[in-house]
Amino acid sequence: MGLSLLSIISEEFTSTREDLPVIRKEELKLLLSKQCNVIIKFFIEYLQYLKNVPDRRSCAPQISKALETFSSYASWLELSEDIDWIRAITTIQSFYDSNISSISIACLNCIVELMSKQFIPKNAEHVILGAFNVMLQVTQRAVDVDLDEEYLEKVIFLISQFMTRHVQRAEKIPNFPMTNFLNNLLKITFKQTDYQLYEDCLDVWISLTDHLVGQQDVSRKQSDGNSLYHHVLLTLCQEVIKRCYLSMNSIYLDQIDDERPDAQGRTDQDLYLEKCIDLIESISSCTSPLLIIRGILSTPISKPIDAKFYMRCIARLSFTFCDHFESTQNDVLMLISRVLQWLNEPVLVVDVFELIRIIIPWLTMYNSKSVNSKQVIESILDGCYKFPYGVSNMRRVDPILHASCKCIRHISTDVKPKYLMELEAFKKILSCFKNYLDPQFANSKFGTNVPITGTIVLQDLAVAASEAIFCASHDESWQTKTFSFLMGSSSNVENDGLLIVHRYKSAMEQKDVNNICLLLDVCGSIIINLQSIQSKQIVYDSFRDVISSIPIVLKFNNSMIYSTTLQFVHCVFRNLKSQCGQSFVEQVVTIVIDGFQNDNSSNAIVNLLDIFTVVIEDGKNRFVGIHEKIISILKRMDPNVAPDSFFKLLFDLLKFGWSIYFFDINLQMVTATPKSINAQNDFVFIMSCFLNAFKSTSTDLNVFDENVKHLVELNNTTRLFCRPFFRGEMCGAFCNVFLDVLVKKSHPLLKDKIIDIIFRMNVGDCWNLFFSFLQAFLASKNLSEEEIKVLIGRSFVGNLYQKDVQQFTKCLTNFIADLCFLLK
Questions:
Q1: What is the phi-psi region of residue 587: left when phi exceeds 0, alpha when psi lies from -120 to 50, beta otherwise?
Q2: 0.70 cut: is pTM over it?
Q3: Which backbone phi and psi does 425 adopt, to 5 degrees?
């Protein structure tokens, strides 16, 4: 009963319960701390008495309870000189090798609590050394004896606390047996047959490698000149790699689910391999990356299931190829030759393309230093070509097509060979693209009802090929000619220009919804990826007829065309706004606004908001006429449909259009006045949207966070919080909402940011207003005048909080805690 009472006292006196004011919590903890010397002394004497009982099993419940209660005190007590911690550790140590599992685990819990302390005073380092000694003995026991799973799990957790918090301290201890300890940990790791325990061991090693990577000198030297970690880490890496080849570890890896993917499409087996690769990468950073990657490259691969890990691991370590370019040429050429052979294995194709895409930076160096680069690139392009052209089922192989086209695109933009257009493989890819534009080919290949499923092929191939054209040469006439070739100049159709434009016009005449959407997607994919001014002008001239048809297409009474056209307009305005001209932009925006319906899809609304944002971000106020129209359509929208885009647009309206709403933009003055009643109403509407989002309990945490950032940035650029039209009721409304959020604890992760913005809104000469807001807020909670006076007076003592945000945070935190206590 006495032990139970001590346990309850520890829990209650140190709890974070909300029904006690902050001051009372501190008093209780201080009161208990003064008696802890007596309490710990009682534990030591009681445990020593129990240790001498002949039949330990008869008193096992008492021993376990005493150790558990000691553990609860050790979790919050500081390592002060007043307590004889060494005697306590020595007493606890006598129980760790007990044959009674509950006692052994309770003993380890005590040592874990001591090991978990981040800050160790200099006069208490001897205490943590005592905990280290227990850990070393426990580790040796785990090697020598087969322990039960629960005890072993606790041992691994103890070691993890040492690795994350104290390994640097142990390195400085003379004669600390680090090598012996790491070798024991190595044996424990690969002794595990349960994959969860094995993963826990890997986490311990990851903590060690993270520590080493963070050190300037990662190769700690012993007195004999040998690296402290080098040999152990290389052995660890070798064994981890062996465990990852699935064909050789089927019995062990059958425990890991490889069928049910998570939200990101990854199975437990994928996550396991990812963790192993993370560790291998960290080890390579601490030792010899070239040695490790060559060890992986030399591994014979007999089954496709092993090739997945092989390629993913090589992809992660591919930086080694560039860092050691001269010495890795033969290795990479052998690797490329090997992985291209795996393109015949459907389950490996995506990984092959992903690996090739990642080592393209090495190909850039190889291109400039070797005459064989042409053959290497041609062989890769040959491998890429067969998938977009040879596919017969679009739906089944979309990921393969996407990976192939992405690889082509990276070769086109990163390698940038001047002879790219001369390569036969690349010419075949361009012909493949032109075939997809040919109606007869598309119909024979996919049938007349599936043109939309080919979008990914056309988009990726179009982007890859067009970027290659604009990167391969700076000759504008050559670029124009080659781009016309790519898009299929239609010489047999008079005055119709490019084949893609001719197909688009034909689709418009026939009102072919599917093909209109498909071709707009292709053109938009090319436009959005343009970089140079000359490439933008070439593409604009080529697609002028498509772009000029936007006002007509927007008037089609079809939701799919409307949504696709909005996306295309966003691409055009993002990259070709200056080429289109101000009058065309205003015309399109007006049509978009006039055609908006409240029941449009969320995708259409997101695209619509993005279009407005691009126009507003012009920054030169050339589009003053459409600000009011944008506000009018925002008033009809539900912010919850696309909150990120909605509030980003509101923020941009004020940030880039401040002078549209107010006469004075001089940041040294705070006397700006609205230009008109409409301007004032629009400003009030924008601020009300932010205020209502903060009020709503359904507002997403990320949206809430972004909106706080928006207001802070507006204040930084326009001194919003100091303006007379913001002070008063508007500032009070925001403060009330933020205080209510803090009291309800609806967004605890944003507590510091909320307190910071309250401070910013009231800093300067606004504190009298703040306290009037505060009193009104407390009055709304049905508190008496006396309670309000005491609450404010006790929390906001002095005036330091008026200048220091940290002091204000402390005062407001205490105020909220005491208020929560009163409202209970």
A1: alpha
A2: no
A3: -65, -40
